[in-house]
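tokens incoming
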């Protein structure tokens, strides 16, 4: 089976979050299921610098008003199709916004262009290749399904994966006339969404298959509380909605082989983690003692519960614990964490930004990782933590609830506990979870049993890939 994946980012070329990890890891996992994946991605500077020699397989004199071409290229094991549209993608800043963090004002045009190119590849393919199915990721690529629905590739199976329903690609009604869609596409069963234009909504209503990144999240988004205005649509298409947990790329995230940590180790040699703990303590300028060391690797946003963490720092420090923070996001929260590091020198350290090698060291050297998200579609951070013996302290939400077993009395006694799970995601419950974690850390035998249980858990892509493959085959085979 030939599958075209359309994604706005892909690891290791360009990454802002878990979407990139999934787009980068799923092709190799699906190859084991007999599905060959080619991924269409935008030609950002980081992508163009990595692909090297590339072949032009399609040209546009004017794609949404700009010259563009599609390049066939390889990057490691990734088989890529790159939309080389310099007017849209060759910019300083991030994939979605400028250096100041403001969204690009023409994002509607940039990602309509990506989706249009995806639909064109579905229709015509390239010499010697045409997909059997198209898989679009999140709002930036979801319009691929809409363009296919209203074009010659309407009968080709199309899947859309929701990585985070909070990001929907909503724009004004005035852009509709520039999208190149027929008039009948403007309506409640098309791209119109509460009087505006909805990219994710258009993809979801056009898709033959909808997936999201955990079973719990697939249920949560059908409720008004977490449906973000799309719960009615999702309930109406519930027979097409499936939750499949993300996996971990075990070639990259493995403490036994990781070149980015101070010392490698296994579940049988947990004492070797000490070298990573010492290196992490030095990096953040923290006191060298045996107190539990909490870490945070996160976007610093309300969704991630980081405002609650900022308020809980005094409680954490009063318990004798330490905290190392890596992340960026809301400027007010960045300031709050920087101020906490100044206020609690030696107990709190903050680094604003993202640093991939440091994130590995934090998983390898931290005792526990705080993930108090108000909602969390899947989460990869807790999966990395489990694999590295860093105890997850998580809210009972989405994929966090699906992957972490709470250290209640029965689970600890059975040796099944892998972390601390709390609910609801509010300041009081978070403070209680931090207190529980500090107390558990004092029981060395129970703590190490939790570490080993988490490290034994299998969150590789193999199981998830089998579920994707089963759903893809069910769509393709009837048309074969």
């Amino acid at each position: 089976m030939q599958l075209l994946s359309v994604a706005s980012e892909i690891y290791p070329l360009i990454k802002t979050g878990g979407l990139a990890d999934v787009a980068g890891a799923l092709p190799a996992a699906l190859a084991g299921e007999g599905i060959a994946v080619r991924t269409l991605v935008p030609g950002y500077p980081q992508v163009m610098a990595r692909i090297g020699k590339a072949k032009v397989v399609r040209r546009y004199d004017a794609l949404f008003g700009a010259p563009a071409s599609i390049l066939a290229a390889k990057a490691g094991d990734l088989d890529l199709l790159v939309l080389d549209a310099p007017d849209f993608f060759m910019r300083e800043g991030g994939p979605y916004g400028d250096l100041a963090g403001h969204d690009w004002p023409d994002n509607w045009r940039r990602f309509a262009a990506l989706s249009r190119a995806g639909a064109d590849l579905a229709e015509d393919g390239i010499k010697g290749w045409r997909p059997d199915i198209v898989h679009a990721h999140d709002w930036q690529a979801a319009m691929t399904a809409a363009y296919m629905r209203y074009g010659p590739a309407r009968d080709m199976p199309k899947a859309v994966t929701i990585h985070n329903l909070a990001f929907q690609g909503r724009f004004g009604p005035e852009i509709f006339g520039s999208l190149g869609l027929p008039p009948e596409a403007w309506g409640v069963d098309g791209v119109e969404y509460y009087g505006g234009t909805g990219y994710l909504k258009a993809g979801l209503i056009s898709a033959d298959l909808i997936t999201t990144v955990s079973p719990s999240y697939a249920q949560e988004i059908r409720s008004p509380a977490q449906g973000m205005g799309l719960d009615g649509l999702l309930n109406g298409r519930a027979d097409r909605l499936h939750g499949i947990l993300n996996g971990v790329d075990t070639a990259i995230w493995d403490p036994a082989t990781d070149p980015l940590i101070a010392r490698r180790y296994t579940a049988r040699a947990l004492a070797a983690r000490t070298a990573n703990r010492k290196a992490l303590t030095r990096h953040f300028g923290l006191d060298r003692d045996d107190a539990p060391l909490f870490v945070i690797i996160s976007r610093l946003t309300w969704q991630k519960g980081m405002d609650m963490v900022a308020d809980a720092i005094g409680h954490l420090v009063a318990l004798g614990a330490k905290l190392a923070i890596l992340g960026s996001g809301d400027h007010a929260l960045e300031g709050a964490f920087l101020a906490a590091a100044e206020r609690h020198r030696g107990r709190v350290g903050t680094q604003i930004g993202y640093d991939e090698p440091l994130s590995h060291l934090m998983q390898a050297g931290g005792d526990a990782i705080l993930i108090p998200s108000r909602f969390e579609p899947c989460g990869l951070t807790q999966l990395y933590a489990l694999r590295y013996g860093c105890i997850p302290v998580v809210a009972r939400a989405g994929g966090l609830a699906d992957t972490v077993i709470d250290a209640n009395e029965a689970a600890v006694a059975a040796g099944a506990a892998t972390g601390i799970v709390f609910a609801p995601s509010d300041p009081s419950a978070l403070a209680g979870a931090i207190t529980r974690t500090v107390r558990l850390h004092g029981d060395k035998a129970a703590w190490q049993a939790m570490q080993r249980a988490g490290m034994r858990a299998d969150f590789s892509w193999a199981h998830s890939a089998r579920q994707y493959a089963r759903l893809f085959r069910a769509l393709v085979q009837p048309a074969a």
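note: The domain at 270-456 is CATH 3.40.50.2000 (Rossmann fold).
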